[in-house]
Amino acid sequence: MTIVPARTVEIRIERTIPAPRNEVFDAWLDPNIPGSPWHEHEELIVTAKAGGLWYWRSLGGTPHYGRFIEILAPARLRHSWMSPNTLGLETMVTVTFQSRGDGTLLTLLHSGLPADEPARAHEKGWNAIFGRFGNIFTGAADKGGCTP
Known about the structure:
By secondary structure, the protein is an alpha+beta fold. It contains two helices and seven strands, in the order E-H-E-E-E-E-E-E-H.
């Protein structure tokens, strides 16, 4: 029996990336790209296809895992997300890539988070990832910069 909290929280983060969406989409899924969400890890398994599983143990040793639900290149991907910080709930991450002039509007929606405090922690983590990821397209990553 699964008991779901009466109230769940979602977070939304947007960033305009100065690169075409095909390039941004491919970089987002590539763990070899510094700044991609999968790059900084102690252990990583990513099977980037619908139904594929992923496991990511962060540099701090926290395990995260889930499965890819949908990958529609270069427009959208969805995957589940579980970690100790989701308090046992399977949450959902949806990332969309929309063309905006010469760039890409990158939007992340993380839904189903169990409470405000875990949501704030995830928001902080995603913002850090977005900062590093955005920097790889501006050259700031080479200088160790991180845009908030």
